[in-house]
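note to self — DONT lose this again. spent like an hour looking for the file last time. sequence + predicted structure for the chain T wanted, 119 res
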Amino acid sequence: MEAKVIRFKMKKLKKSEERDLDIAWARNVKERDNWTCQICKKNLKKEPRNCNAHHIIPRQFKKMRWDINNGITLCVNHHRRGVYSPHQNAIWFFGWMNENKSQQLRYCIQKLQELEKII
């Protein structure tokens, strides 16, 4: 998996800097996935408002927040609304990730374990 990571020094960022990094991260995730929901495979390039970038490991883990490999493109239904959404059914989503995006999920889990060793 080719890693495209937004690098930055770990310093206290202003809210506007975090927002700018969030926007860049989301754009990079969507571009990597060709603006296509990874669950239903619907292309959303012409419907950008219905195209969401989702953090696999929650964004509160700052050292993973802007790692493109910690993101996946989902349509709005698969992101927040539907029964098969990481926000509505995290267990289903991680099972789906394990079956369909296992390399990406393993990467995220490994990074999270490395961070726990540091903390």
